[in-house]
Design goal:
This protein has helices spanning 2-53, 59-72, 76-107, 121-149, 153-174, 180-206, 219-254, 259-280, 283-292, 296-333, 335-353, 361-367, 372-396, 398-424, 428-436, 440-456, 462-483, 487-501. It is an all-alpha fold and 502 residues long. It starts with a helix and ends with a helix. The protein is globular. The longest helix is centred in the first third of the chain and has 52 residues, at 2-53. The chain is built from 18 helices and no strands. Helix content is 84%, strand content 0%.
Length: 502
């Protein structure tokens, strides 16, 4: 099973790194052609769409969790009922959201257009394209959840990679200031819709016993899904508020044109969290399967080992982002955004990276149906985030928004660690000693290398920056292999590498 987990994680990370490369190339092009207003609007509407996406009532992770249990129990009948029930429920949700966006595009497009705009046609098309995208993708999420339950992440990742490359190529060739917003929305929608329609076909092809006949829709199954997923819903809405509210607060208070000053550094740093997310994504259905088999010892082993190996790359990226971030932003998108980011970059990194010191928390608690803790407390954290951001943005600007996000997280994350360790059956000190403290020496060694390198080299191009980052990362890896890993862990890593080569 470790081989499959490693393969799926590598597949997730491969897709992520390709998207990161595309983001690196396309972001300056998008800003140049869209301007600060339309780019900020894209970010703000994306945040709102994220909130609307929560209308799935948390069904998607619930489907993945229940399907993994039914697969472990070899219950085909339950898998059929679950598949059809989730499909028709999400179809209804997709219709509702598409209707809201469609009406907004046809009758209220001026609400998202600039005040000086005399032609709102592109904003109408923008909202209509988003409506069509969500109508198709919502019910298709069911197939994606089943692929995750079957531990077949590589299938959806391969499609994502192809679509991302094709979409970015089309944008690169055809984008102009006149068509940028609509072309971006259209290529994004076509790529996402084609991906999900293919996943639906693939799931039916590989598992012919699954059926979308309405006769298999079960209200009883839906109630069971909603009983579980309502906690995921509350957690998801709160997490979305915590992560997406900042851009909305800046946009409403300072205007959409100010959003890129925050969102571009934030999106860049958020890839650290996305890497952790992709490392841990495969573990939720695995924890669910182990829970169905009552294998607590194995759960403890997987939690500690998985956390330890997930924390390491996040620390490398966080140290690198803090030390080299301003120089990278200056080379990438210009001095204006780089100068703005210097003021709040450290706070932003701390906020985004803090949950990653315990990266398995949400996966594990969801798998054992104990995620009600997040449903109870995370809304309070999210509301605190929103309140503090609104309070601090006036005296401190964007820095105040970043601080408004960090302060509640500093209180909440240690509590999360205590809850997880209570259910796992060991103390937080065991977790800290096993998963975090071993990386202290590698972190110090990497940070010292970066500080020393910046004293001797002026970073005037990507080559110098990449060389410094590569050397510092290798210092972390070498020192980590010597001081952070024990002999058994080194042997595990070598075994995985050898299997990949073969």
């Amino acid at each position: 099973m470790y081989k499959r987990l490693a393969f799926n994680t590598a597949s997730n990370l491969g897709a992520l790194f390709i998207k990161l490369g595309i983001t690196f190339v396309m972001t300056p092009i998008l800003i140049k052609n869209m301007g600060n207003y339309d780019y900020g609007l894209w970010e703000m509407v994306g945040a709102v769409i994220g909130y609307m996406g929560m209308l799935d009532m948390g069904i998607r992770p619930a489907v993945s969790r229940f399907a993994a249990r039914f697969i472990a129990q070899k219950d085909e009948s339950a898998l059929i009922t679950l598949y059809a029930t989730a499909w028709y429920f999400l179809l209804g949700v997709g219709l509702l959201i598409a209707l809201i966006l469609g009406l907004g595009g046809m009758f209220f497009a001026e609400l998202v257009a600039p005040e000086e705009s005399t032609d709102n046609v592109r904003y109408t098309w923008f909202l209509l394209i988003l409506a069509a995208q969500l109508l198709i993708t919502f019910p298709s999420y069911t197939a994606e959840s089943y692929l995750e339950a079957y531990q077949e992440y590589y299938l959806k990742n391969n499609v994502t990679i192809v679509n991302s490359i094709l979409g970015s190529t089309i944008l690169f060739i055809f984008i102009t200031p006149e068509n940028a917003l609509v072309l971006l929305a259209a290529t994004n929608a076509i790529g996402i819709c084609s991906k999900y329609l293919f996943l639906v076909w693939l799931m039916q092809y590989r598992r012919p016993f699954l059926s979308l006949r309405r006769a298999y829709f079960s209200l009883l199954q839906l109630k069971e899904l909603l009983r579980f997923s309502v906690k995921t819903l509350v957690q998801g809405v709160a997490t979305k508020m915590e992560n997406a509210t900042d851009s909305l607060v800046i946009g409403f208070v300072m205007g959409p044109a100010a959003v890129p000053l925050y969102s571009i550094p934030a999106n860049l740093v958020s890839y650290i969290r996305l890497i952790s997310y992709n490392f841990t994504h495969v573990f939720m259905p695995y924890f669910s399967s182990l829970g169905a088999l009552n294998d607590q010892r194995k759960i403890q082993e997987v939690y500690l080992t998985g956390s330890k190996f997930t924390v390491a790359p996040c620390l490398i990226l966080a140290i690198g982002a803090y030390t080299l971030g301003p120089e990278f932003l200056s080379l990438w998108v210009g001095d204006e955004i780089a100068r703005s980011a210097q003021e709040f970059l450290g706070v932003l990194i701390a906020f985004l990276v803090l949950p990653l010191v315990n990266p398995m928390a949400s996966r594990y608690l969801t798998a054992i149906d104990k995620h009600g803790f997040f449903a109870k407390w995370q809304p309070i954290v999210a509301l605190s985030n929103l309140g503090l951001s609104l309070l601090l943005i006036y005296p401190l600007g964007i820095l105040g928004v970043a601080l408004g996000s960090l302060i509640p997280a500093l209180v909440f994350q240690p509590i999360v660690l205590g809850v997880c360790c209570k259910h796992l059956g060991f103390s937080p000190f065991v977790y800290l000693r096993f998963a975090l403290l071993p990386w202290l020496i590698p972190c110090v060694a990497m940070a010292a290398t970066l500080v020393a390198a910046k004293q001797f080299f002026v970073i005037t191009n990507y080559g110098i920056l990449l060389a410094i980052a590569s050397v510092a990362s290798m210092v972390f890896i070498v020192v980590g292999a010597l001081f952070a890993l024990n002999q058994h862990e080194r042997s595990q890593l070598m075994a995985i590498v050898k299997r990949k080569k073969n």
